[in-house]
Amino acid sequence: MVLVVVSSPKGGVGKTTLVANLAVALRRRGRQVTAVDFDSQNALRFLLAPNHEDDLGVARCTARGLPWSAALVGGIDGVRVAPYGEASTAERLRMKDMLVQEALSEALSGLARSPDEIVIADTTPGEGRMQERLEALADIKLIVLLADAGSMALVPTYRDGLMLRPLSERPDTFGVLNQVDPRRRLSRDIADFISVNAPERFIGVVHYDEALAEAAARGEPVVGAAPGSVAALDIDMIAGRLDRLTAPGSY
Q1: What is the pTM of this model?
Q2: Which of 90, 145, 165, 203 lies deepest, with the highest CB count within 10 Å?
Q3: What is d(CA 19, CA 138) in angstroms, rounded to the nearest whole number?
């Protein structure tokens, strides 16, 4: 199993949409992919398995002592999805308390069908115990930031300024700059700053594209709905890098 953990310092940066699209793009490159939702908003299933109506997910499986494979559903283009699912407050708290690192590793490993299957985890925004445990197990970590003042204000302090440090310090952690709009000066300046000061740290840039929002509103990944769109091409480029980074013998 290759674990890719996707996080963000704050909400509203398009993280879940990116996770769904990366999962499909990697599957289209021939990789086996399972996407796991660790966010109680339970939004990932709407993008990858829009017709799925069962309320069972990893949270309730954890509370009931069931393997996470019991929550797996088939998604778009053959991506498998383990939704967070419906859960009471008690079940959500129980999941956070029960999943010590060893148990979390076992639960994730039970989802993989082969050593090189990619398990991509969508996490809650910010930092917390679950985030810390997941990242301790991850082969690759992606941090999603918007090309706006709010995200950039967090960069110097988030993860102790990791996103501006040389890649050699944490070669398994990469940034993704999302919704870059060249028509807006600030967005353009931020993208230019990143390209000059942290080019190795950022695995890719996803440009602002209405096709992405339109596809998400229909419950579709843009890489399938509009494969020639700017956003789809950007995401596919990132998926290509992930594919190479996680190829057998690379990790």
Answers
A1: 0.95
A2: 145
A3: 15
